[in-house]
Specification:
Length: 101
């Protein structure tokens, strides 16, 4: 990340990114590198635990199965995309939030 661009095109690409995506903060990359250097393993673990152990954190696990699989699908497992889409609306109703999408 600290490496400079190898070509004019790469440098121009970086500059374009900083101008458009980082609202003109051309020092963004250096700030990010410094932030990462200050990170402590314990802080990363604590944050990960907070996010991953929070029952309110949205999750989805996708398991691909062969058509020839004879295993039974456990109850409550969604087997089609439309079931997931319908569940999203049900989740919003349960949590009291609404979606405008």
């Amino acid at each position: 990340m600290e490496k400079k661009g190898d070509s004019i095109a790469q440098v121009l690409g970086d500059l374009y990114y900083f101008a458009t995506e980082e609202k003109g903060d051309f020092d963004y990359k250096n700030k990010l590198v410094e932030s990462v250097k200050r990170l402590k393993k314990e802080d990363v673990i604590a944050t990960a635990r907070k996010i991953l152990l929070d029952p309110q954190t949205a999750r989805m696990v996708i398991l691909m199965r062969s058509n020839s699989s004879k295993d039974t699908v456990p109850e409550g497992v969604l087997t089609e995309v439309k079931q997931f889409k319908n569940r999203k609306g049900a989740h919003a109703k349960r949590t009291g939030s609404s979606s405008t999408h």
